[in-house]
Amino acid sequence: MVAATLRLVVVGTAAALLFIFCSGPTWTVVGDSMAPNLLGLHYPCRCEDCGYRFTVSPSVVDHPATCPMCGRRGLAPARSRPLGGTRLGLGAKAAPPLRRFEVAAFRTPDGEPMVKRVLGLPGERVRIHRGELWVNGRRYAKSMAEFRQTAVAVHDARYRAPETLPARWQTTPSANWQRRGSVFATERGQLRYRHQVSYRCAIPRGEASEVRAHRGYNVDVSGEPGPVNDLLLTADYRFTRPGRVIWVLRGAHGQSADTLMPDDSAILTAQIGDRAIEWSIAGLPTPARTPRIEGWQRVEFGRFDGRALLSVDGRTLLVAEANDLAGAAPRACSPAMEAGEAVRIEAATSLVVGAPRIDRDVHYESPSYLLNARQDQWMLGANEWFFLGDNPAVSKDSRRLGPVPFDRLLGRVRW
Fold first, then answer.
1. Does domain 5-41+84-142+365-414 have CATH number 1.20.210.10?
2. How far apart are CA 2 and CA 415, in angstroms?
3. CA 125-131-134 angle, 5° bins
4. pLDDT digits (tens, 9 = 90+) for 155-209
5. How does pLDDT run across 331-345, given as a tens digit for each residue?
6. Residue 66 has pLDDT above 50, yes or no
7. Is 188:349 a contact under the CB 8 Å cutoff?
8. Considering the domain 152-360, what is its CATH architecture?
9. N or C: which end of the chain has fewer CB atoms below 10 A?
10. Burial class of residue 386, CB neighbours in 10 A (0-12, 13-18, 19+)
11. Largest alpha-carbon pair distance within the chain?
12. Does 173 sit behind a cis peptide bond, omega within 30 degrees of 0 on the bond before it?
């Protein structure tokens, strides 16, 4: 018989409680460990500059928030309007077996129920190294679909900071581009994204910055977030004439002189013909061309987990592994990429770019209770799973509780 009230415990910058209230087949979650995908009690916050709406944890609601989209500081969450948690349903645990990246409920050794995401499967050796998941001695390479499940928004061109600040999306030469809202159009030129400080710190707002593991939900009261270099660029494109378009995703080491580091940055090329488009990453072509259509095409280009991926209209067309990127010839970059520049689109033809958006990969930073912990890998038994929270900076999960055996699983959750 399911108890009327199930309680989960998570640890953040201060101890936080996560409850699941059972009402028939559904539960309501209150807590931080799976934010922003599964929200407990939370407070809404709206940026006064760009209009972006995000949520803030009740454990830090008394602290001023920073907009993760434009960097506006000193925002006050709507404390008078707390919002309830996500409602969950519990499914079977037996068949089929839990798969990686599924979300499931389980009991801790003390009998406390928790909800987390499956990252390690029975018989695997799991390691969390520099914020990334390693399985059996190799960095785990996510698919595009897996990346989307835990991705964190970095910037969306639909949300613009005041004109007194430097523009994040910059055009070169500016006379060749037209911008209407979040749509950019050119006959020839470059569209560049230059990241800026988006977390609470002593650096002035508007200054260039590398992308960091900032979450507006946590308000960064625990210190400076670490750097994250795995990014996904998503936008809608209209290719109206034959020609060539090049995308560059800058890597962690940037560039040497005026040449991109071939083993660190990813380069996508589209050769647009009269009827079809030829795609290639680091010179590696896709198995087949895609038709050139009159309307919009959704293109996703990502570099994460040591490889680069291309998806067009929801279908993954090409995956370039680390050795493909490392074997590519260096490419001259003119002008040289500036500090904070993370993305560049070079158009040698007529191009329209709609609502470009950048997301970063989840970064499994250690919560405060693990800062002095030495264990970073776990060997799973034949019937054990490894769980992590989507909000790793505050989540109490298998990093502290250890692997979860089959007899403590409660089942998949749905919402």
1. no
2. 19
3. 20
4. 999 999 999 999 999 999 989 999 999 999 999 999 999 999 887 777 888 898 8
5. 666 677 788 899 999
6. yes
7. yes
8. Sandwich (2.60)
9. N
10. buried
11. 69
12. yes
